[in-house]
């Protein structure tokens, strides 16, 4: 019997029980759709995080007070002394692999302009900040050394602040009240959008660190120091230089752990990558289980089908079908069933990935390979789980199959 | 009667068939000798359990004898592998069953094409031949009908067309009129008689109905697994 005949036969047999066939493929559909979706989401999230981290600034290092072993975000910052602008200057001038350094302190604060007010993040920093973050004003000017020296009452605002506070007027030159400090808007930053973690990056007001220290914080402390190395290749060298310098400045004894922490954004990227990797593996496990369950569903329905069609098998054998023809017929039927499930799964997966990428604002990254692998896997599942029922069908003795009621 | 002196088309020699084993063993056929010559129309008669159906299944290579020898055109087929038997059934035999055994929800045309599918005949050729044979059994124009849209008599005609489409030497009919009323049954029998007379088709028919057997030219009567009588029969005037 020709394979084209077998294929036509399989399609017709499946079309006879459309609903049953559709339900049978559901496990495969879900499994394959999950594979496609998870691959697309994983790749999309990585691309997004990668883009975001590089948008934070190239070759960037962040220096935070507090030791590594306590974890970055717990209370250890309190025990370790904070930085000063002198630390920042020392890093900038004494580390050969460091090109720029900026002191950054920030505080959440209510900003008032006219009759509008809005809670924003107030950042006090130094002039290198804009270059390190590769983030510049689209209107007006950035903060300069001069602003810092004079502790000028100037500020640069993000796009969200403009829409919230200056909806009905030109922000440039307008006055902005922060606490009891009134400062003038001198620049508007380019829009950065919402970060992966849901944070609105455009909701901020930037002012000279000197002004921040004097008028807002009341002390000269620096929350963190942002650094950019001379080149990407020098990032590790810059990190080592900063560590050595700060150990000396902060009088960390030999053998004692650092009471500060220099972070490389690539590490964060790697960390996020490993998190996505774990999630991907988890979803892949779910998809694999779903595919196996789908395969068992196919086997189950094929066994039912073989029993239902015992007489048909008998007739076919009587008029000249070989055992191999019957085997082929049922295996092809199982493969077609699984293959159709796989195709539907790919379509749903791609559609789902498209919708999810829109909803989650993640780039749509589809891989041809994962689609093909998913399809191939579903075909293999058809063969594996179709083999047993097909073998059972082919081993029926013609005379017994014919007599079957 | 030259056909009877030539070597037989089908030949059973000392064939026995035992179902089960030990105390539960049931002897369906006991040391049966039977020759069937080309062009004969043989009716195998007997009560149920007499061994007539078992004999028929062995003749059709659907079942194998427990002992004895079965030859087709002088060649022993007892030890042939399953695939060769399948090809023999496909090329040499046409089967007509009591319950028609058409594939449900499959058109008359496609049912008739089925043996050609397994013979590897190309699509166009098998469509042409199926149409031809359907016309020959009086079903021209009903090619697209599914079995449930056809009367019993028409379904049996489709089954006969399916049996004939591969141009077999021999048609094995197992109670071909068993599910039909007597008038339709008579029509089917006349069709078989005509095929036997006009095309020289060898027909072996199992029946327990003497009236139906009357269409055949030779009667083989089974009783308790042995051939009780075997002889020419003068066909009733049809």
Describe the structure.
The complex is a heterodimer of chains A (405) and B (238). Chain A has 405 residues and is an alpha+beta fold. Chain A has 2 domains: 3-52 and 270-403, no CATH class; 82-249, no CATH class. Chain A contains 14 helices and 12 strands. In chain A, the strands form 2 sheets. Chain A has a 6-stranded mixed barrel. In chain A, helix 2 runs antiparallel to helix 10. The longest helix of chain A has 44 residues, at 265-308. Chain A is elongated. The two termini of chain A are 27 Å apart. With 238 residues, chain B is α/β, with parallel strands linked by helices. Chain B has a single domain (2-232), classed as P-loop containing nucleotide triphosphate hydrolases (Rossmann fold). Chain B contains 8 helices and 10 strands. Chain B has helices spanning 2-5, 52-59, 82-92, 108-119, 123-136, 152-164, 182-199, 210-213; strands at residues 10-19, 26-36, 41-46, 67-72, 75-76, 93-96, 170-174, 202-206, 218-223, 226-232. A 6-stranded mixed beta sheet of chain B has the order 6-7-8-3-9-10. Chain B has a 4-stranded antiparallel beta sheet with strand order 2-1-4-5, with helices on one face. In chain B, helix 5 (123-136) crosses helix 6 and helix 6 (152-164) packs parallel to helix 7 (182-199). The two termini of chain B are 22 Å apart. Classes of the chains: A alpha+beta (405), B alpha/beta (238).
Describe how the helices and strands are arranged.
The complex is a heterodimer of chains A (405) and B (238).
Chain A: H1 3-16, H2 18-55, E1 60-65, H3 76-79, E2 83-84, H4 85-94, E3 98-113, E4 116-125, H5 129-132, E5 137-140, H6 145-150, E6 154-157, H7 159-165, E7 175-178, E8 181-189, E9 204-208, H8 209-217, E10 221-222, E11 224-229, H9 235-249, E12 260-264, H10 265-308, H11 310-318, H12 323-360, H13 368-394, H14 398-403
Parallel strand pairs in A: 4-9, 6-8
Antiparallel strand pairs in A: 1-11, 1-12, 2-10, 3-4, 3-7, 3-11, 5-8, 6-9, 7-8
Helix pairs in contact in A: 1-12, 2-10, 2-12, 2-13, 4-9, 10-12, 10-13, 12-13
Chain B: H1 2-5, E1 10-19, E2 26-36, E3 41-46, H2 52-59, E4 67-72, E5 75-76, H3 82-92, E6 93-96, H4 108-119, H5 123-136, H6 152-164, E7 170-174, H7 182-199, E8 202-206, H8 210-213, E9 218-223, E10 226-232
Parallel strand pairs in B: 3-8, 3-9, 6-7, 7-8
Antiparallel strand pairs in B: 1-2, 1-4, 4-5, 9-10
Helix pairs in contact in B: 4-5, 4-6, 5-6, 6-7
